[in-house]
Design goal:
Blueprint: H1 2-8, H2 22-27, H3 31-34, H4 38-65, E1 76-81, E2 87-88, E3 109-112, E4 117-121, E5 126-128, E6 133-136, H5 143-146, E7 151-154, E8 168-173, E9 176-181, E10 188-191, E11 199-200, E12 206-208, E13 214-217, E14 220-226
Parallel strand pairs: 6-7
Antiparallel strand pairs: 1-2, 1-3, 4-5, 4-14, 6-8, 8-9, 9-12, 10-11, 10-13, 13-14
The protein binds zinc ion.
Length: about 230
């Protein structure tokens, strides 16, 4: 019995406990080599997927930390970094990227500004506010757009309204958004959260946009949604 175990064991290289019956020893050599080969591959397949997941997570990191933006430079603004280095609004208590808590005493740093929020149009269109926009029926004709200083938001007027070729401007400064009237007929209107009415901006007037405020121009409405704490 011991001799049979010893002979059976070395041949398949399998565990001695399986070496008892000769028939098992003979049949086991074939399967064990076959199964161990795919198993390491399958085991390596898991880490490969994880690396892909890590790569997909790394792409936005490069975008956020890359100081050179083809659509325009990302201005440096004061903020705080989580322990993983993600750049956040100075009042953020948790990292917007990874959720890690940012202690109250975390020293401020300077970094490339991420998007401060989004503009949501009445037709469901959304524009990320990493930069400023020019709203109108033909914003592309403006020097601000042709120079790349502003991105165009081309909108048709609402019923019984007139949208100027260049009607209103949405600026991003620091971590805040502003609306600027550009002097078109019909004017630019602002409704702040909690307000029931519309305030008409004076010609070329600018107002800071509170989170949740609505801008109306040319019979259309854009809503500003901040991504950060007030
Ligand atoms: Zn983070």
């Amino acid at each position: 019995m011991p001799g049979g175990l010893a002979q059976g064991g070395p041949a398949p290289g399998g565990p001695p406990s399986f070496g008892g019956p000769a028939t098992f020893v003979q049949s086991s050599p074939a399967p064990p080599p076959a199964t161990p080969v795919p198993q390491p591959l399958a085991a390596e397949g898991g880490p490969v997927d994880l690396r892909r997941a890590a790569l997909s997570g790394a792409a936005p990191l490069r975008l956020a930390s890359n100081p050179v933006n083809p659509l325009g430079d990302k201005p440096e603004v004061p903020g705080v970094r989580c322990e993983k280095g993600h750049f956040n609004h100075p009042k953020a208590s948790n990292c917007m990227r990874c959720g890690r808590p940012i202690p109250a005493g975390t020293p401020q740093a300077s970094g490339p500004r991420p998007s401060i929020g989004a503009l949501l149009a009445d037709d469901g269109s959304v524009w990320g506010l990493s930069r400023g926009y020019l709203v109108g029926a033909q914003p592309g004709v403006a020097d601000d757009v042709q120079s790349g200083a502003l991105a165009p938001i081309s909108m048709r007027s609402g019923p019984n309204h007139s949208m100027g070729p260049v009607h209103a401007e949405v600026q991003v400064r620091g971590w805040s958004a502003y609306v600027v009237d550009r002097g078109a007929d019909g004017g630019t209107w602002l409704q702040s959260p909690g307000s029931q009415g519309w305030d008409k901006l004076a010609r070329n007037e600018q107002r800071e946009l509170p989170n949740g405020s609505h801008v109306s121009c040319g019979g259309r409405v854009l809503t500003y949604l901040s991504a950060w704490p007030a």
